[in-house]
## 1
Amino acid sequence: MLLSSFTNTGSHNYSDILTDAETFAHLRVGSAPSDSALIQRIRDAALQQVEARANVSLRRGTMSAKLTGFNPGAFPIGPNVNVTSVQYVGAAGGAAQTFDSANYSFSSQGNVQRIVFYNTPGTHPYTLEPVTINFEVGYNAAADIPGDLIQAALLLVGHFYENRQENTTGMMPAALQTGVDALLSPYRVMF
């Protein structure tokens, strides 16, 4: 599946997931540090790293996935995937048509959510990705996000703040890497 860009439709942003006050307290920099804008960028980068490493969306939003045909597939992102529509370019070409929702089913196996199609029509042979799945993904509210994911972000915030220059080895310390991986592991979407 080739994913489109994410469009935030939920009621929360990165600053709702990990507030300035929580971030400043974790860094022990007081309630109004002079470099608060830098810290906010670091917080956002840490939360984006959590999303990228675990293949999750912490915010609720919409995406679409392109397929080469009506093949069963696993969504490479989670959690809480909700398919809103499936469209396809028919064998004759032309405009995209909506595929009847009675002809596909959706299931979860662990952290991976899958889609299977039935009674599929032919697709246009010269369209590279004739099938498009439109879906919602992510946590409905900031309060729904597991604490482990927030703690992983805080570990990264601390590391990024204390190491604003590239390390001599160019790598994250092994203890930090292990801690972040351990926190993300139960939530990681592996497809």
## 2
Amino acid sequence: EKKPTQPKEMVIDKQMKEDLLETNKEWFIQEQSDIDNYVIRHKWEMIKTGTGIRYAIYQKADTLNNSLAIPGQVAVVNFEVRLLENDSLCYESHDNSQWFLIEMDNVENGLHEAIQYLRVGDKAKIILPSYLAHGLTGDSDKIPPMASVLYDIELVEITTKDEMRKR
């Protein structure tokens, strides 16, 4: 009678693990330093979140009665996306507002977090480190692997998924 076999675990030797951790740590520190230098060079005062996102609201909404965006709502935005390394333009909405479902749609993880710091009418600069943008793979079009990106974004509207379907 044959006994079922267990799948073999991938064996990674201790030295390889240590080398990978050290390389990633060095890369992470370098990326943070590059972002800090970018912010200093542009003389921006930005808030840094616990996850590493940096943002600055440079035009506040006309009214403070607007609530912050929350998960499950639809964020309607105008935006420009640039690479931090050379300021090259990757994408822009051309005032043709785009929308995404906060914490549910397939946009950069960092954008889901960052949009929740804004109120309708706010315009902000948002820097997403690579691990909160397109990560190790990039987007296979205009954003290369391991690239930090800068969003210049306006939160145009907060609505519901049902309201968006009616349009």
## 3
Amino acid sequence: MPKYSAGLLPYRWRGDGAEKQLEVFIVHPGGPFWSKKDDGAWSIVKGEYEPEDESDVLAVALREFREETGQEPPLEDLVSLGELRQPSGKRLVAWAAQGDVDADAVVSNTFEMEWPPRSGKAAAFPEVDRGAWVS
């Protein structure tokens, strides 16, 4: 059975005229597996939902944004980006919204896992450890 995720991609314009450039806000996953990895690690803010919750997937995307950044999601010019089926089979439904997010003020919820491996000790890690605006 595939997994389902919903996400939000904030965007903003920087500069004027010919210098005008589109930037999008992405996040880096927290936890020990990603601490020294950048390539292929960054993504949009997203979170899983159950197929029976499909009637309000946008609400899932907005909730996940709040939980993973500690900020209110931008909602200006909200547009559906559709659905993408990832190589793993996971379905990702996403929206873009124009607005600003403070990348330096990202404060994420946490998850627990056994760390170090086979230690029997539980450690808490942020789901997202940082955010960035990229062109």
## 4
Amino acid sequence: MHTGRLVHEAKLNTKVLSDSDIASGAVDLFCAGENRIVEQGAKIGIHSWCCVNDLTAIELPKDHPAHKDQINYFTLIMGAVNGPAFYFHTLQAAPFDGVHWMSDEDIQKWKVSTQFISK
């Protein structure tokens, strides 16, 4: 999150190419870009995290303090509405030890990309 804040504050652009494969924290970092460019075919994987007192993130109430830093981060980089909504979507998408590969439609729906380049 610290590196993502630096990327965001510097207004740097991020891009994943059609043959890119990013997941987990790499998605968090990618989302920090001022302009987030995704070429069709890129694989973007999201999932939950683990653990607080043997509970995974999705098992914690939304107002649990363990979510605070992530909510603040995603609010900063993706906005007050979409940021927290996307964060909680990542928790529901796959368990901490799995990955959900987002479809092109999901990438656009959740505003992971600000520019989607179709083939």
